[in-house]
């Protein structure tokens, strides 16, 4: 008994140190030279400026809900009172600010995302190794790194959406007041995600779909045999019941409040400060204005050179250049750029908003394999059901689906990935690679799932595949690091990182 307890404590310590290492890596990369470009990068021209407008009480119109600008505004207010981070200043946001002021809170928030992804992975399977891999892979995603280093809003959308799903899963493992606390937090997370951008609703949409699937499975089991007997057999087959299987235990009032009432209240309340500063258009008019604004935006290279179709996102065919500038040692120092390295005549400063290529490509492949596993399981279930229907009365054998927690896992990954991607199929406006960030979380979870399974396989070949994937993801992250952080590159160093013509 003491030996088992000692082993458990050792495993817990190793897991905790691993997660701490992932967090420290994420934190250091996001805060490293955060003032590197003394300007407004990409959509900072909107979000940093709008955030400062709230502080200066300057009326303005925004085509997105206001929550992310509030958060950035809080960061600006705190940043201006800090005694550091003032090596460079500019007035592009409407006040004399340091880039640190409008970026630091995004960097801190982005550092937390790998931990939240790891927490979600642990909640799904209760496997520390899987949670660690999920967190590590999330920390090695270049797009999340880039988005975290500038005053943009997509990291908040993803963070709140994941937290909503994490909290709803934790609620089914609690009772009484503790359950209600998790349900309230889940509703706040889903509402806050929608209050960043409307596509934050896709996380809530995925949760509804999982609930519907759970109810459907419960209905089929209840109508194809003894439900009590089915539960007993399942408990024998499933070593650790997935919290996804328990979602159907939520009552109607719990679902209604946490997945409808509270998100709507949070979204509505988030508009109060904005409407206080901008009383017209009113709340309902603003919703119409946002909808019509995005409907008016066309698509194609004439609208924006980095528009990309939704079906190109899983393969990362068209990333976005957030910043690109060539500098020479012959000219006058550029106040926007950091000092050039000694002995270098010409360099390129490039910030590419792109994922880790090997992480994204392998994650897409992993997701295809997950879909294959799920389709095969459904086919087996249908075949079993057909055969059982002939002799169900004689043998009284219940239908069991899905038979393992892993099957619920595949369903969860596929449903949520699809819920975050498929709504974009009908969108006609110009869309960008960063709209795939929500989907990429579930693709990353799929890759971590396969990698963890292979690492624990008795087959040497599969364990070798798992180790290879980890090294490919880490190696690619290091190789493309210069264009995530905007490090100075020679023309040749830049070209060898542009693997596809569509990346330029």
Topology of helices and strands:
Blueprint: H1 2-31, H2 44-56, H3 67-80, H4 99-125, H5 128-139, H6 142-148, H7 154-171, H8 176-194, H9 201-222, H10 227-237, H11 252-269, H12 272-277, H13 283-296, E1 320-328, E2 346-353, H14 357-395, H15 405-421, H16 437-455, H17 460-479, H18 481-485, E3 488-489, H19 491-495
Antiparallel strand pairs: 1-2, 2-3
Describe this protein with a few key phrases.
globular, 3 strands, mainly alpha, 4% strand, 3-stranded antiparallel sheet, 504 residues
Description:
- The chain is mainly alpha-helical.
- It has one domain (13-503).
- It is built from 19 helices and 3 strands.
- It has a 3-stranded antiparallel beta sheet.
- The longest helix is centred in the last third of the chain and has 39 residues, at 357-395.
- The chain starts with a helix and ends in a 9-residue tail after the last helix.
- Mean pLDDT is 89; it is low at 225-240, 390-394 and 396-403.
């Amino acid at each position: 008994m003491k030996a088992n307890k000692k082993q458990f404590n050792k495993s817990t310590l190793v897991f905790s140190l691993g997660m701490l290492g992932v967090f420290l890596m994420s934190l250091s990369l996001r805060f490293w030279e955060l003032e590197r470009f003394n300007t407004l990068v990409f959509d900072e021209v909107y979000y940093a400026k709008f955030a400062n407008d709230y502080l200066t009480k300057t009326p303005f119109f925004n085509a997105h809900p206001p929550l992310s600008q509030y958060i950035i505004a809080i960061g600006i207010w705190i940043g201006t009172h800090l005694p550091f981070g003032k090596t460079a200043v500019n007035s592009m946001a409407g006040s004399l600010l340091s880039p640190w002021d409008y970026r630091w809170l995004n960097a801190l928030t982005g550092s937390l995302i790998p931990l939240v992804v790891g927490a979600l992975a642990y909640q799904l399977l209760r496997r520390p190794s899987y949670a660690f891999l999920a967190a590590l892979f999330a920390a090695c995603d270049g797009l999340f790194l880039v988005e975290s280093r500038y005053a943009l809003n997509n990291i908040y959308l993803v963070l709140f959406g994941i937290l909503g799903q994490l909290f709803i899963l934790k609620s089914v493992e609690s009772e009484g007041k503790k359950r209600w606390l998790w349900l309230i937090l889940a509703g706040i997370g889903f509402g806050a995600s929608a209050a960043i951008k409307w596509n934050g609703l896709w996380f809530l949409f995925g949760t509804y779909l999982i609930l519907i699937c759970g109810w459907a499975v419960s209905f089929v089991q209840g109508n194809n045999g003894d439900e009590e007997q089915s539960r007993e057999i399942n408990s024998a087959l499933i070593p650790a019941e997935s919290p996804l299987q328990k979602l159907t235990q939520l009552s109607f009032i719990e679902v209604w409040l946490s997945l409808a009432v509270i998100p709507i209240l949070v979204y509505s309340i988030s508009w109060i400060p904005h409407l206080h500063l901008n009383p017209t258009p009113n709340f309902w008019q603003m919703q119409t204005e946002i909808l019509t604004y995005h409907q008016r935006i066309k698509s194609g290279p004439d609208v924006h050179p980095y528009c990309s179709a939704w079906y190109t996102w899983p393969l990362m065919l068209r990333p976005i250049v957030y910043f690109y500038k060539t500098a020479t040692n012959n000219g006058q120092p550029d106040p926007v750029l950091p000092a050039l390295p000694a002995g270098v005549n010409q360099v390129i400063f490039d910030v590419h908003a792109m994922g880790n290529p090997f992480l994204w490509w392998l994650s897409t492949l992993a997701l295809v394999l997950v879909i294959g596993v799920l389709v095969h399981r459904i086919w087996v279930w249908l075949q079993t059901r057909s055969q059982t229907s002939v002799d169900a009365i004689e043998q009284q054998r219940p239908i069991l689906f899905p038979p393992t927690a892993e099957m619920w896992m595949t369903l969860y990954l596929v449903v949520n990935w699809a819920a975050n991607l498929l709504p974009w199929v009908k969108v006609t406006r110009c869309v960008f690679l960063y709209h795939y960030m929500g989907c990429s979380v579930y693709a990353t979870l799929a890759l971590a799932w396969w990698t963890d399974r292979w690492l624990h396989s008795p087959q040497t070949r599969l364990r070798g595949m798992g180790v290879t994937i980890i090294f490919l993801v880490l190696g690619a992250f290091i190789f493309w690091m210069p264009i995530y952080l905007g490090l100075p590159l020679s023309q040749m160093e830049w070209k060898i990182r542009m693997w596809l013509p569509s990346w330029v």
